[in-house]
Predict the 3D structure of the following.
Amino acid sequence: MEDITKIKDLTPSSRRVNVVGKVLSVGEPKTIQTKFGDQRSVTEVTIGDDTGKVILSLWGDQASQARTGETLAIGNGYVSLVRGHIRLNVGKYGSLSVSDEEVTEVNEDFDASEKEYENNFHRSGPRRDNFRRGGYGRSNRDEEEE
């Protein structure tokens, strides 16, 4: 796997990341209702590397690949926010496998999923809600702030 992203470098806008992490804990599967109305099973797995730890959301059968102590390789993963907190995801275009390389040292002091972000953080960065300011052009408030 090329270009490994360290856990401390994950942000709410992280896309197409390759992460290798040791499974620290595997939560109980939960059934949730998706925004499309479907019922799906999700399991939160905490993984870590030498820079920190993060919660990895595994959907359906993906959870069977996560065993405490094993090292997982996530290919083409992405970050989403769940109630303002980072979650690493595999997604339908990503891959999940047991890694050939082992993570031996884990920094449990830094938790990337602990920090709370505003939920209006989008893939391209913070959202600019121009509609509330009265249009798409520059508002008087913009000119006053400069």
About this structure: Residues 23 and 47 are 4 Å apart (CA to CA). The longest strand covers residues 71-82.
